[in-house]
Amino acid sequence: MKKQTDYELLLQQKKKDYYSMYTYCDAIKKIDFTLVSNKGVQSYLIKEHPYFDYFLIVEGYTSKEKQEQILTQLQNIPDVLMSANINPNHLPSKVNLVFD
Based on the structure, what is the number of domains in the chain? Predict the structure, then answer.
């Protein structure tokens, strides 16, 4: 993964917050991975899930089997305490996941 410029989010009262972001593109499988921090200095990116430190966003076609494989691989990393498949359409703050 490659470190990107921190994701800048405009909060209420014209304040900004910043979230660490990393990306990886699998050109062969046409899948993009974005790892973004959930914790900024002032707020959470996804307020509905404050117990998650990071979100891994997978863009491109992935089968249910591949999604389960990714989750299993994440769960096997010793420093990863929790992982889950979250449908962004069910998040009130999903607009925060639109990256330019």
Answer: 1
